[in-house]
């Protein structure tokens, strides 16, 4: 009687079953790995925000005041390029040599543009200013090969309403000066800690903005800004309506992009001052940022955004760092810019004001 040799291999069906099982296991594992990686990136991002805010505290300990969001150069009050808050904080972020190089360039340059852009001190990357979740962070800005930045300073709920020289704080019947009372950081505005009457734990210092991948004219909501006609309503005094920005600026076929992008410098130049490296606590995180410019006026709302799923990281003036959800209460966005008192923009607006008198409760 003959005996058949015992089979030692796999049949095709068995092999396919094993491959299918492995595929299912990999499919189940990959989201967990991606989530773990994002959690690690978010923790690192939180750490970088905290270090910048600690630098802010060291600045305040030295000069007995908080830094201005931006500083105008003498004799150049209508120019739009000026050094921002990060330049002032550099000595407290282990960047003393770069700080001195920038100051020397301003002292020896004949123009603001030459002072603020041209030089290796602007081009050498600053990893501590870039969120690890930012996909464009390792590449320089498409303009002037400038080092990028993801961390923006808080301008509160005081939206910008200025004329063609809107970069200067004293135009249009002092309206920008009014906005300066609605957030801790504005141009040529140095606050003392005692001015933060809402409490340092209830007032934001920094949050995030993605760096526009296509430079000035990026159509992406993350890092870009869009034109929103009708946002600036002129009823004797120009006023900004945030709900118009929400309704009109986005592409109806792709809500991740703008229907009409406009130039923005957000995230492309770490050294720039207000408003490009600032944010407003009006439209919730990862919503649109908008410009409008009818009849010679300019208006702007800059909204924080990031590549973290569901929200942005933000630090408070006390040095704590928290995650702010896209769904945070933003109150009534049909209300125009307030000049005093409580913010109409809910918990989100209250986190931006430094003397609004609100009680902030985050669940």
Query: What is the percent of helical residues?
Result: 25-40%
Q: Decide which structural class fits the backbone.
A: alpha+beta
How many discrete structural domains?
1
Instruction: Please provide the count of β strands.
Output: 14
The fraction of residues assigned to DSSP E strands is 5-15%
Which of globular, elongated, flat, extended, rod-shaped describes the shape? globular
Description:
- The protein is α+β, with helices and mostly antiparallel strands and 363 residues long.
- It has one domain (32-352).
- The chain has helices at 12-63, 85-89, 96-108, 112-117, 120-123, 175-180, 242-248, 346-352; strands at residues 151-154, 160-163, 204-208, 225-227, 232-234, 238-240, 250-251, 254-258, 261-262, 278-279, 290-292, 297-301, 311-316, 321-325.
- The strands form 4 sheets. It has a 5-stranded mixed sheet with strand order 10-1-3-13-14. The protein has a 5-stranded mixed sheet with strand order 2-12-11-4-9.
Features:
five-stranded mixed sheet, single chain, alpha+beta, 28% helix, 363 residues
Provide the fold topology.
Blueprint lengths: L11 H52 L21 H5 L6 H13 L3 H6 L2 H4 L27 E4 L5 E4 L11 H6 L23 E5 L16 E3 L4 E3 L3 E3 L1 H7 L1 E2 L2 E5 L2 E2 L15 E2 L10 E3 L4 E5 L9 E6 L4 E5 L20 H7 L11
Parallel strand pairs: 1-10, 4-11
Antiparallel strand pairs: 1-3, 2-12, 3-13, 4-9, 5-6, 7-8, 11-12, 13-14
Q: What can be said about this structure in brief?
A:
By secondary structure, the chain is an alpha+beta fold.
């Amino acid at each position: 009687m003959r005996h058949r040799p015992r089979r030692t291999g796999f049949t095709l069906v068995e092999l396919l079953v094993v491959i299918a099982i492995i595929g299912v296991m990999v499919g189940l594992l990959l989201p967990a790995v991606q989530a773990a990686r994002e959690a690690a990136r978010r923790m690192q991002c939180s750490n970088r925000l905290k270090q910048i805010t600690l630098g802010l505290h060291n600045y305040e300990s030295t000069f007995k005041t908080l830094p201005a969001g931006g500083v105008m150069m003498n004799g150049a009050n209508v120019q739009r390029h000026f050094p921002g808050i990060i330049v002032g904080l550099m000595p407290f972020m282990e960047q003393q040599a770069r700080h001195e190089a920038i100051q020397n360039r301003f002292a020896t340059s004949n123009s603001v543009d030459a002072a603020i852009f041209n030089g290796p001190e602007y081009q050498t990357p600053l990893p501590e200013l870039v969120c690890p979740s930012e996909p464009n962070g390792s590449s320089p800005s498409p303009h002037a090969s400038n080092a990028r930045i993801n961390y923006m300073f808080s301008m509160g709920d005081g939206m910008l309403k200025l004329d063609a020289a809107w970069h200067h704080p004293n135009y249009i019947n002092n309206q920008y000066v009014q906005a300066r009372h609605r957030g801790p950081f504005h141009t040529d505005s140095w606050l003392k800690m005692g001015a933060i009457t809402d409490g340092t734990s209830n007032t934001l210092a920094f949050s995030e903005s993605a760096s526009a991948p296509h430079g000035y004219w990026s159509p992406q909501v993350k890092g870009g800004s869009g034109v929103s006609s009708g946002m600036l309503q002129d009823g004797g005094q120009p006023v900004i309506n945030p709900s118009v920005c929400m309704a009109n600026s986005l592409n109806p076929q792709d809500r991740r992009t703008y229907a009409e992008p406009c130039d923005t410098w957000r995230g492309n130049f770490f050294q720039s001052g207000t408003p490009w490296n600032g944010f407003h606590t009006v439209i919730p995180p990862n919503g649109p940022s908008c410009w409008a410019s009818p009849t010679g006026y300019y208006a702007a709302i800059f909204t924080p955004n990031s590549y973290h799923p569901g929200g942005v990281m933000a630090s408070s003036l006390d040095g704590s760092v928290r995650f702010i959800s896209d769904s945070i209460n933003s109150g009534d966005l049909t209300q125009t810019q307030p000049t005093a008192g409580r913010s109409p923009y809910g918990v989100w607006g209250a986190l931006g004001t430094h003397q609004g008198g609100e009680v902030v409760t985050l669940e």
